[in-house]
Specification:
The protein has 565 residues and is an alpha+beta fold. 38% of the residues lie in helices and 8% in strands.
């Protein structure tokens, strides 16, 4: 009898400790998405890997404006901080034993670093301020030399999934768009995700912070992130993913719930502005609110509109290893060795070979929606209002001469074409409102793609150089900034093969000037010399010149001079 009880006890503990429930990521990534392909929002917001033509991610725009992807990672975080009007650093935290695709390459010594923008910039007389709060997230695993980027695409109304590959000292980083079907196996609903309170996986938990310090042998920051964070940091991170997670639902309400109804979208915007002006005084039972509910009823999808679940169940990897259950787990589950698992975000089979998490903790498990909205809900109103920044509200109030009723009423003056079924854009809406209020429409930093190079999909092969190629030195000292750069004007070493790259370099005679160090060093044009003086490539080129003083001449000789015949 005791043996039977013991077997039953072990079996139940095995079920609690781990299982192989569900399909692996390899199979899940091949399954179609949950959103009906024939819904208006699915047609207007496609699920292709690359962004729709004429649109790009916020991250692309920021990197193009900067001219290059900063290295090392703290410099990339610094780039985000520089855009914050208060110069406050982005939220950063550490997760040594997480659930990402690259979890096998993170540990207590080299934890995964997460960063998130949490600011709203003021507008200027000519330009709308940046609003990346809940719209820009980074995840960096140093041992994988790869950054995962999740950032919003204002013009396309969706989040973009990107990778900065080959991100390491002396390497040539490559910014690509990831395979969306892979990303959305965990990021279900194409939204940012994060664990729930009390966030034991993060360094906001004392035990996790202590494990990081013990493994690293000190209490010094890792990549400028302190080993221990106050619990307020993961709490705010969680809030930001919730803020960002509602944007796709807002788009569906704007597009699908209103269908072809101009009046529906017009009324929704009027109520959003009413809420924006006085949240505490907003009357959800007003005649205008009743009108919106009636208009929504006509077009609301019969299955409702799902709000994707952005929260993952809290998991405590340290507690999992303690006690009898931890001991039993060590006997029954193969423990991963350092470096096991996926080396990149496309190494799916290697990821599937890692020990499985229980279904409750596995981000691959299908999660029910956070909510399913119906036509009686006014969440579209709140979603639209949340997309306006504080600076937007101030700008609109000033344009309306601080007359809240006027601000709402001018919505009726906006042309019907604005309310046709289309992606909702904060920038487009602001300019429509400013125009009918008699103010000038404003520019925005992160919409125009005319000066951006074509987006690159993950999996496109790097250029292969022949032995003794004249491009060898350019590969070492120039490709990092000028190949795969999202800025068109800086991407002049692009091309699918060696011949195409060489032709592009030869066509750029400014390269000769940028490499003419003897002529311009110490002059007012020294800042035009390349590579940039503060870059790793500049430092390495200087070292190489000590061994080969004619190196710059050899590189300049590849580019025809003005009087070459």
């Amino acid at each position: 009898m005791r043996a039977v009880i013991a077997v039953a006890l072990v079996a139940s503990l095995l079920a609690a400790c781990g299982s192989d429930e569900g399909s692996g990521i390899t199979q899940l990534s091949k399954q179609p998405g949950a959103l009906a392909a024939d819904s208006p929002s699915a047609r207007l917001i496609p699920s292709d890997d690359l962004p729709p033509a004429g649109t790009r991610s916020l991250f692309d725009h920021l990197i193009a404006a900067n001219g290059q992807i900063p290295y090392p990672f703290p410099k990339l975080v610094e780039l985000i901080r520089k855009n914050d009007p208060d110069a406050a650093p982005p939220l950063t935290l550490l997760i040594p034993h997480g659930r990402s695709l690259l979890k096998g390459l993170a540990d207590d010594t080299h934890p995964r670093v997460l960063a998130a923008a949490d600011f709203q910039a003021a507008s200027t007389p000519v330009s709308l301020g940046l609003n990346p709060r809940g719209q820009l997230f980074l995840g960096f695993v140093e041992n994988a030399s790869e950054i995962e980027v999740l950032s919003y695409n204002e013009a396309a109304g969706r989040y973009e999934f990107q990778l900065v590959q080959n991100y390491c000292a002396g390497c040539i980083p490559k910014l690509v768009y990831a395979k969306r079907a892979i990303c959305t196996t965990c990021h279900q609903g194409a939204v940012p995700i994060f664990p729930q309170r009390p966030w034991n996986e993060t360094n906001g938990a004392p035990a996790t912070a202590a494990a990081i310090q013990a493994a690293r042998g000190n209490d010094q920051p890792y990549l400028d992130v302190p080993p221990s964070n106050p619990l307020a940091v993961p709490e705010r991170f969680d809030q930001l993913t919730d803020v960002g997670g509602f944007i796709p639902a807002t788009q569906r309400i704007w597009i699908d719930a209103c269908g072809a109804s101009v009046a529906c979208r017009r009324t929704m915007l009027k109520l959003a502005l009413t809420w924006l002006e006085n949240p505490a005084g907003f009357d959800a039972q007003s005649a205008e609110a009743a009108k919106l509910r009636e208009l929504q009823t006509a077009g609301w999808p019969k299955d409702g509109i799902a709000v994707a679940e952005s929260d993952l169940a809290n998991r405590d990897p340290i507690e999992e290893a303690r006690g009898f259950k931890g001991w039993l787990r060590s006997l029954t589950l193969r423990q991963p060795k350092p470096g096991d698992g996926a080396k990149t975000n496309e190494d799916l089979e290697a990821f599937d070979r890692l020990p499985k998490l229980t279904a409750a903790f596995d981000p691959l498990s299908r999660r029910p929606p956070k909510r399913v909205l119906n036509a009686a809900d006014l969440d579209g109103v709140y979603g639209l209002a949340a997309l306006f920044s504080d600076a937007d509200r101030s700008l609109l109030e000033a344009a309306a001469r601080f007359d809240a009723a006027k601000l709402v009423s001018v919505v009726d003056k906006i042309d019907d074409a604005f309310f046709a079924p289309a992606v909702y854009s904060r920038v487009r809406t602001m300019n429509a409102l400013l125009t009918v209020l008699g103010a000038k429409p404003l520019n925005y930093c992160c919409l125009d793609t005319a000066e951006l190079s074509p987006p690159v999909a993950s999996g496109e092969p790097p250029v292969t150089l022949a032995a003794g190629s004249p491009l060898a030195h350019f590969e070492q000292y120039c490709f990092a900034c000028h190949r795969g750069n999202p800025s068109k004007k800086l991407n002049f070493m692009s091309g699918p093969d060696e011949a195409a790259v060489l032709a592009n370099i030869k066509a750029k005679d400014a390269i000769r000037e940028a490499l003419d160090w003897p002529r311009y060093q110490g002059t007012d044009k020294a800042n035009k010399l390349m590579p940039p003086a503060d870059s790793l490539q500049h430092e390495r080129l200087q070292s190489a010149l000590a061994q080969n003083p004619k190196l710059l001449e050899q590189m300049r000789a590849v580019v025809p001079g003005m009087f070459d015949f």
